[in-house]
Protein: Nitroreductase
Amino acid sequence: MTLDDLDALMARRFSCRAFRPDAVPRETIEQIVAAARRVPSWCNAQPWHLAITSGEETDAFRAALMEQAMAGGHEPDLPFPSSYPGVYRDRRRTCGWQLYEAVGVEKGDRAGSARQMMRNFELFDAPHCAIISSPADLGPYGALDCGGFVTGFCMAAQAAGVATIPQAAVASFAPFLHRWFDIPEDRLVLCAISFGHADPDDPANGFRTGRAPVDDIVTWRG
Ligand SMILES: Cc1cc2nc3c(=O)[nH]c(=O)nc-3n(C[C@H](O)[C@H](O)[C@H](O)COP(=O)(O)O)c2cc1C
Structure:
């Protein structure tokens, strides 16, 4: 495996927002999790834990989550960003517009954008969903370690031909997630990863996000 191979794999991954219904075999999911757990963590604490749904469990969760979302409320365990200033706001807007343009939601179409946002709570029709939690005692560094795990999971899945999307939106309803998945109160729900096989023909999967040039994100010294 060369850096070029890894770069090619990373370039192929994207956040999938339309899945086909066919399930991923349990052995493949196990292999993805086994690979993802190789990521580093501070003191090798490996703070991640996943609740993974398949089959009817995904459908029951999807229905209950949708009900929660329709009822409204926003109570994540981890505070959502308070703002996206400057360049972060620009990047956020750009990727939002890319999505809306792809699915045919015009600027200013609030109902259309709300409908697309609600697709989060249908898990974009994915056949599987993983809920990632971290021990509250490990604080932001536990969350940092789990962020690495999320990336490891997405990359391992990509290598297996499985599409993914990390979803903070799902973590909006943390009290419900604690109840539904029996996640103890001393753990923080961080995000979900919905996964399965991508529907390549769905317009929601028809765009790719950009990245800032290397020189914009590195301060070279020496
Ligand atoms: C922690 C995290 C949370 C995310 N939450 C959501 C989400 O709730 N809904 C969504 O549509 N995309 C979500 N995304 C996907 C990002 O929008 C996406 O990664 C970003 O726009 C870059 O595009 P790419 O993943 O296709 O390369 C999330 C990504 C990460 C890493």
